[in-house]
Amino acid sequence: MTIADKQLQCREIITKAVCGKGRKFSTVTHTVTPPHHPTSILGAWIINHQYEAVRSGDGIEVIGTYDINIWYSYSKNSQTDVAKESVHYVEHVALSYVDPKHRAATEEVSADVLQEPNCIEANISSNGSGVIIRVEREFSVEMIAETKVCVAVIPGGCDDLDGKDLEFSLGEDGDYEDLDPDLLDDEL
């Protein structure tokens, strides 16, 4: 006897699950003005990156800070110094997937850095007094919340499965027409 021969029942279960996901890559520009007019840029680094995630509107905001350090020469390349500047940012990451049946009061959000803020270009500004740097960064965000899921209940419970095969029918016409394609995970 297979499970298909028995009458299956369904139950709704409330559970915590990933109910929203998003990802964002961005390039931003900052201008740092050192105390001396730079002659050349010897190096540019991003350090001390810290961030947190908060729910905001239709997405999640990543709120953070990092320090920009620019090593430069001045006085016609006769001296060097390091210019330091702290940057505060807010990056809005839209949720590309949201479970419409989640319970908003139970939302917990998180962010992961896929690419730490990194200086990809540093140039002396056209007026010669500052340094313009381009920074790349990328975040992945998730929203976890309570939601309802529907599960099949096997009469007799799990003990009734010993040595038996599970078979489920797809419906009268045997196809997948009733499946919601938005529920399929893009990462599969």
Mind sketching the topology for me?
Layout: E1 9-32, E2 38-56, E3 59-74, E4 79-94, E5 97-98, E6 103-124, E7 131-153
Antiparallel strand pairs: 1-5, 1-7, 2-3, 3-4, 6-7
Q: How does the overall form come out from the CA principal axes?
A: rod-shaped
Total strand count, please? 7
Report the order of strands and helices.
EEEEEEE
Major sheet: order of its strands?
A: 5-1-7-6
Helix content: under 10%
**Distance separating the two termini:** 33 Å
- What is the mean predicted local confidence, pLDDT? 86
Strand count, sense and barrel status of the largest sheet are:
4 strands, antiparallel
Query: Helical stretch count?
Result: 0
Strand content: over 45%
Radius of gyration: 27 Å
Low-confidence stretches: none
Structural category: mainly beta
